[in-house]
From TrEMBL:
Protein name: 3-hydroxyacyl-CoA dehydrogenase type-2
GO molecular function: (3S)-3-hydroxyacyl-CoA dehydrogenase (NAD+) activity; androstan-3-alpha,17-beta-diol dehydrogenase (NAD+) activity; estradiol 17-beta-dehydrogenase [NAD(P)+] activity
Domain of life according to the entry: Eukaryota
Stored PROSITE patterns: ADH_SHORT
Family membership noted in the UniProt record: Belongs to the short-chain dehydrogenases/reductases (SDR) family.
Keyword Oxidoreductase in record: yes
Organism: Leptidea sinapis
Length: 255
């Protein structure tokens, strides 16, 4: 299905990004895993074999992303699909009256910097390489897929920064799709609900159980592979563009 396709996945050393990289390889594609130098990206790529490569990056760094694109060209000669999975969660009340403490502004800045600015940094740079492809019969040169969260719409207590960062990803999706449409690059965002990944496991177990029970159907956390299946569908369907797709078992999070 993806024979000849080259993908780049940020946050590809863990969770949803790792599942996406695994699917691209399984479907015959090649992939560059971009993740922090401290993440097990090299081992992940090694385990996926010669069609996978690792590029250590911080998604907020222009230099790192340009280096990762050079690695992509050196190893695989082109780029067709970029998937932005890199992200961090943060949890704190806007004002903690128990501790008489306002939300830490640096935490707010970092959350937005990684999740929103980092995602945009990757988009604005990968678009240049994807745009060099010859167009297919439909005029398409490639696809960019971003990861928001249902927190963009149903932000819980403590998610002001995280919800803002993900709402920003949702908000910029259509504008970027319009910017890149003439070059035949589609831009789609996925807003996942609850998936069993290391990020989710940061929550206290009572919170995870509460959230899991709140999913109407299926009443469980999603498997990262199920996120990757939506990435596959987006790549395959040329009519998907400029939209955010919730993937959440019809969960609408409570406060
Ligand atoms: C990640 C993906 O994008 C998808 C999602 O968005 S999944 C949704 C993830 N939700 C969150 O991250 C919520 C973040 N919010 C929080 O963690 C907490 O509200 C907070 C830490 C900001 C503040 O919690 P607060 O009640 O003020 O203080 P805290 O003392 O830590 O918690 C009180 C109690 O609630 C529990 N608790 C903490 N966070 C909880 C949560 N999110 N849900 C339910 N219970 C929670 C604590 O275990 C503690 O229980 P205890 O009294 O029995 O020890
Ligand atoms: N797990 C869920 O339930 C869930 C739900 C909604 C949205 N999301 C979003 O999905 C994406 C993937 O989350 P996950 O659950 O797989 O989490 P995860 O923690 O397993 O993976 C996130 C990856 O991003 C990497 N990363 C973090 N900051 C980075 C940076 N500055 N530069 C490069 N890489 C960086 C981490 O090293 C990690 O490998 C995130 O954007 C997250 O907000 C997750």
């Amino acid at each position: 299905m993806f024979k000849g396709l080259v993908g780049l996945v940020t946050g590809g050393a863990s969770g949803l990004g790792k599942a996406t990289a695994e699917l691209i390889i399984k479907q015959g594609g090649r992939v560059v895993i971009c993740d922090l130098p401290s993440a097990p990206g090299a081992n992940t790529a090694k385990a996926l074999g010669e069609n996978a490569a690792f590029a250590p990056v911080d998604v907020t760094s222009e230099k790192d992303i340009k280096n990762a694109l050079q690695t992509t060209v050196d190893k695989f000669g082109r780029l067709d699909v970029a998937v932005n999975c890199a992200g961090i969660a943060s949890a704190a009340r806007t004002y903690n009256f128990k501790k008489d403490q306002p939300f830490d502004l640096e935490l707010f800045r970092t959350t937005v910097e990684v999740n929103l600015v980092g995602t945009f940094n990757v988009i604005r740079l990968v678009a240049g390489l994807i745009g060099k492809n010859a167009p297919n019969a439909d005029g398409q040169r490639g696809v960019i897929i971003n990861t928001a969260s249902i927190a963009a719409f149903d932000g819980q207590i403590g998610q002001a920064a995280y919800a803002a960062s993900k709402a920003g990803v949702v908000g910029m999706t259509l504008a970027i799709a319009r910017d890149l449409s003439k070059q035949g690059i589609r831009v789609v965002t996925i807003a996942p609900g609850l998936f069993r990944t290391p990020m989710m496991e940061l929550l206290p177990e009572p919170a995870i159980k509460q959230l899991e029970a709140s999913v109407p159907f299926p009443p469980r956390l999603g498997h990262p592979h199920e996120y990757a299946l939506l990435v596959q569908s987006i790549i395959q369907n040329p009519m998907l563009n400029g939209e955010t797709i919730r993937l959440d078992g019809s969960l609408r999070m409570q406060p």
